Amino acid sequence: MRALLVVNPKATTTNERSRDVLVRALRSEVDLTVEYTMKRGHAAGLARAAAESGVDVVVTLGGDGTVNEAVNGLMTADPGLAARGTAPAFRLPALAVVPGGSTNVFARALGLPRDWVDGTSVILDGLRSGRHRVIGLGRADDRYFTFTAGLGLDAAVVRRVEQARLRGRTSTPSLYVRSMIGQIFSGEDRKSPPLSIERPGEEPETGLGTVIIQNTAPWTYVGDRAINPNPDASFDRGLDLLAVRNLYIASTTRTVTQMVSRNADPHGKHVLRLHDQADFTVIASRPQPFQLDGDYLGERQKVHFLSVPEALRVIC
């Protein structure tokens, strides 16, 4: 079995010594090639090339951003004439994720341990036994995502966190909480919510201040606590949405409080929730912050979302 290990050298939970241990463990089971990412987007190219060369498994060591890039590389690979016409999950290499970031939402949503050592043990056992899970993905225009997407407040918070990290701050739960509070009180888009949702055969939903899209639950974690605005979201179904109709301080604070409670069930006349959606478009009257899998991707005014069932095999 041939495998590629894609390593983000900035992975926060590992160092050079632990990476050497991981490489030796994987080489005991597979014919392994190791590549280190050099810049943003590099993991996508490495995974795409591996898929087109006939590699059986792509393993990532990094956070959710590294996973997202590798998934996009796999999903955009050309498998060759012999494999065309089959479902992506069975014409592409399997994906194995060693948790190496600060949050690791995708790995934890799959049920993998938070610790990279324990996660590696699960992956090795899966490789030996041939165990895998077939999951669906989301797609936003031409880019795939594994667990979440967002426009508006959600993405603006991600932007604030990334800006803080560029200034040398460490990514912590408290940083996300402070960024969320700061964005809520910023006053942006409070009086004229810019977003709407259009679905085939349905009346548009308008006057929305932020939209959170989930391909699985949870949406994210704050430390050990799962944040679950759409608790019924699943890799095995379509996409789930939560939208807030306005961003007034009182109502937004109430919704955020509902989201982070242990029995999360955001509700109220200002909350819109949609379950198991296959196809929809989010449109903004003015450019809005946009994020996929926790990475800020700039501003957009229109994004078309699709659920892509049975897209990927994952070792877990």
Number of H/I helices: 9
The poorly predicted ranges are none
Major β-sheet profile = 14 strands, mixed
| Ends apart, CA distance between termini | 17 Å
Describe it.
It is a single chain. Helices cover about 30% and strands about 35% of the residues. The model has no long low-confidence stretch (mean pLDDT about 85). It has 9 helices and 16 strands. β1, α1 (about 15-25) and β2 form a beta-alpha-beta unit. The chain has helices at about 15-25, 40-50, 65-75, 90, 105-110, 115-130, 155-165, 175-185, 250-260, and strands at about 1-5, 30-35, 55-60, 95-100, 135-140, 145, 150, 195-200, 205-210, 210-215, 220, 225, 240-245, 270-275, 280-290, 295-315. The strands form 2 sheets. Strands 1, 2, 3, 4, 5, 6, 7, 8, 9, 10, 13, 14, 15 and 16 form a 14-stranded mixed sheet that branches. Strands 11-12 form a two-stranded antiparallel ribbon. It is globular and about 60 Å long. The chain is an alpha+beta fold.
Outline of the structure:
With 316 residues, the chain is an alpha+beta fold. It contains 9 helices and 16 strands.
